[in-house]
User: Which sequence fits this backbone?
């Protein structure tokens, strides 16, 4: 009854194994060929944890090297784009300076023409 109240199951009478012994002391030979695995476990398709970690580290180094190359390429492209932008900005600045000079010349010429025209018209009106 005590067993029902605490909901603890007693397995002592349900197994023949002593504490500390494996549940199945012997595995049938069809599953174990005596060296720790099935017959095909000796193939080169299987690796140990150490070999797997070494291979993973090599792959990660290889991937890191490729990422470094990609980063270097992007940095090179970024520098080229910055140089092109600086060159374009310089060209726009030269065009703007030339336009400013042309604008000053245009306004100066226009004022000179208007002044000369007014002077000529004034003389014509005064002397005619």
Assistant:
């Amino acid at each position: 009854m005590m067993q029902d109240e605490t909901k603890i199951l007693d397995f002592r009478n349900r197994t023949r194994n002593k504490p500390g012994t494996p549940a199945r002391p012997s595995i049938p030979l069809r599953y174990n060929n005596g060296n720790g695995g099935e017959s095909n476990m000796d193939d080169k398709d299987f690796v140990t944890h150490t070999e797997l970690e070494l291979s993973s580290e090599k792959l990660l180094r290889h991937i890191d090297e490729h990422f470094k190359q990609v980063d270097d390429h992007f940095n090179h492209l970024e520098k080229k784009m910055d140089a092109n932008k600086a060159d374009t900005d310089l060209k726009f600045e030269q065009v703007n300076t030339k336009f400013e000079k042309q604008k000053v010349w245009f306004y100066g010429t226009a004022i000179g023409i208007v002044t000369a025209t007014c002077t000529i018209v004034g003389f014509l009106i005064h002397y005619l």
In short: The chain has two helices and no strands. The CA atoms of residues 11 and 17 lie 11 Å apart. The longest helix spans residues 49-127.
